[in-house]
Amino acid sequence: MKTLSRQRGAYMVEFAIVAAVLFLLLFGVFEIGRFFWTLNTLNEMTRRGARLAAVCPIDHPDVARVAVYNNPGDGSTSPILNNLTAANIDVRYLDVDGVATASYTLAEFVAVSITNYPHTLLIPFISADVATIQMPPVTATLPTESLGYIPDFDSRQCFGT
């Protein structure tokens, strides 16, 4: 009877240790999955922006907006990733040597990049300063096509609206 009363709280201590490890692993797997989902989404946004920039006129302002899955003319944040705006998108037109150009005749490639995007972890009880990871820069480069060089340009030809 004496042995039983000494071990009465042992189950709670064992559960606390096992539960702490279990929740740490659970949140770790969840956050790693979110990190890679965010990285894949950023890759898709740059690919989408590069594909659109390859067929639209140089420096068209709606390319970056549509790349973050907004409507043309919409300047709000992305509906998919928090705090991502068109300001995070960098659209560059490159010549054969990879040097930035603004000329229709010299542009051979278009490069769309997303930089400076902070990914905030959802782990509870950690401050936002500690739980923010700077995502690596993501870039997509495609060869230009018509580059929007249409004599009587109408934005519906570029965005389908």
Please give a structural write-up.
This protein is an alpha+beta fold and 161 residues long. The protein has one domain. The chain is 37% helix and 15% strand. The protein has 4 helices and 5 strands; from the N terminus they run H-H-H-E-E-E-E-E-H. A 3-stranded antiparallel β-sheet has the order 1-2-5. A two-stranded antiparallel ribbon has the order 3-4. It is elongated and about 90 Å long. The protein starts with a helix and ends with a helix.
Strand order of the largest sheet: 1-2-5
What kind of oligomer do you see? Answer: single chain
> How many strands?
5
What's the overall geometry? Answer: elongated
Order of helices and strands: HHHEEEEEH
What's the number of structural domains?
Answer: 1
Summarize the structure.
This protein is of the alpha+beta class and 161 residues long. The chain is built from four helices and five strands, in the order H-H-H-E-E-E-E-E-H. The strands form two sheets. A three-stranded antiparallel β-sheet has the order 1-2-5. Strands 3-4 form a two-stranded antiparallel ribbon.
